Amino acid sequence: MELWDAYDSKGNLLGYDLVRGQKLKAGQFHIVGQILIKHSDGSYLIVRRSKEKESNPLKWEASAGGSALKGEDILTCIKREIKEELDINCKEIKEIDYRVYDDGFLFYSFLGLYDGEKEKIVLQESECIDYKWLDKKQFKEFVSSEMMQGQKSRYSDYLKKEELI
Question: Which pTM does this prediction carry?
Answer without folding.
Answer: 0.89
